[in-house]
Design a protein that fits this description.
- By secondary structure, the chain is mainly alpha-helical.
- The chain has ten helices and two strands; from the N terminus they run H-E-E-H-H-H-H-H-H-H-H-H.
- It has a two-stranded parallel ribbon with strand order 1-2.
- The chain binds zinc ion (ZN) (2 copies).
- One zinc ion binds next to helix 8.
- InterPro entries: DUF4186 (IPR020378).
């Protein structure tokens, strides 16, 4: 029943101007949603969008050209700060970087600890996006829930092979190399590090 409600909830294609960004939750939008007047875009382009703007890599809605894709596609984890800032110019990623995370997900993450989460992220990503094919491609990562890695994947565009293709230049339909998997896991772990208060917990 819960599931059904999620599916039926109306998602905005373009978030109306009167709705403030900080009131948007992941359940209000899809990876195609935009809020261009607040500089929150969508770089996932269909062939039609590419035709409309005459090129790839710009916002499908307004044509904003904000991401240095060559730099992004270096997939250099040392450049994560740039990559995260670039990711945050896309509405869906922005929302995942700022949305309130289910307190249970935080609690479970704190209990697991960083080492455990690293192992778990590698396993989950390997299963969900690491193989050449996934029967549930595009829907393999839930929008919310009690798994912090889920939030991290959407925030870092490691949630499905299509997002991984345009953000990280990883070809769909191929199994990830160890290096690619390491890279994706590292993005996820850095998000978790930023959003889960591990240190505060230690100092209690
Ligand atoms: Zn836009
Ligand atoms: Zn995705």
């Amino acid at each position: 029943m819960e599931e059904e409600k999620f599916e039926k909830k109306k998602k905005f294609k373009r978030v109306p101007a009167e709705i403030p960004v900080d009131q948007i939750t992941p359940l209000d939008i899809t990876c195609g949603s935009t809020k261009c007047e607040d500089e929150l875009h969508c770089f996932r382009m269909s062939n039609k969008d590419i035709k409309k703007h005459g090129r790839k890599g710009v916002c499908k809605e307004c044509g904003a050209d904000l991401v240095d894709w060559r730099r992004m596609h270096e997939n250099d984890i040392e450049d994560a700060e740039y990559m995260f800032n670039a990711l945050k110019t896309e509405l869906i990623r922005h929302v995942y970087w700022h949305t309130e995370i289910n307190p249970e997900a935080i609690e479970i993450a704190l209990k697991r600890g960083k080492n455990d989460l690293a192992t778990r992220a590698r396993k989950l990503l390997g299963q969900k996006v690491g193989k050449a094919q996934n029967w549930n491609e595009g829907r393999q990562t839930p929008m919310m829930g009690k798994e912090i890695i889920t939030y991290a994947q959407h925030a870092t565009a490691t949630c499905c092979r299509r997002c991984m293709e345009y953000w990280h230049n990883i070809t769909p339909g191929t199994a990830l190399t160890e290096e690619q998997l390491d890279y994706c896991v590292e993005l996820v772990l850095r998000y978790i590090d930023e959003r889960v208060p591990f240190e505060e917990e230690q100092n209690k």
